[in-house]
Amino acid sequence: MTIRPCLTLGLLICSLMAGHLFAAPLPGAAPGDLIFREGTAPVSDVVISVDEGRFSHVGMLARRDGAWEVIHATPSERAGRPDGVVIDALNFFIAPARARHWQVYHVANATSAQRAQAVRWARAQTGTPFDVLGTTGTYCTTLVWAAWQQAGLDLQARFTRLHIPLAQGDFLLPSGLLASPLLSPLLSAPEHDSTAETALSR
Questions:
Q1: What secondary structure letter does DSSP report for 1?
Q2: Residue 172: which CATH number?
Q3: Fewer beta carbons below 10 Å: N end or C end of the chain?
Q4: Which domain range does residue 134 map to?
Q5: Gap between the Cα atoms of 36 and 106, Å rounded
Q6: For residues 201 and 182, what is the distance between their CA atoms, to the nearest angstrom?
Q7: Distances (CA, A) of 156 to 30, 53, 94, 116, 182
């Protein structure tokens, strides 16, 4: 094997291990579909402990200039960027530094017009503050749920009543959104190999 094929194969393997090969395309996915992830930040562990589900965060898939991106409401994941609704490249959203695991869910019974409307509405929320209580802003699940509501499609999500410090009331947890009969798993990535990830970072 020559040096060039070896180098190409090495880059391909590194890209796969780093979780970037699915940046484009996502087979079968469409704008407006949802992408869930199990995050790596401490707040993700808190969400999972309360929800007792697999995922801690969700965003909406969109396309720009032929590339996939994710619209989501989140505590800041970039230095100098405030908490709120942001748009990130897909490979940033699913990078091992931020995602232990991720999965795309297809929204059924949605027309092309409804998909366009849902994405358009979600984009328009860019800059809205991140607020788990939902009084001065929004959080990840309610952003995507509301976007589809605005597009005329009720996801029939299940809200959960919480009675814990700093969180009193009805909340849409990731598992409650996944309870929607309109969501079906489309594509997922295995959990990242932390040993491989450590080796790549050296």
A1: -
A2: 3.90.1720.10
A3: C
A4: 3-201
A5: 11
A6: 39
A7: 20, 18, 26, 20, 8
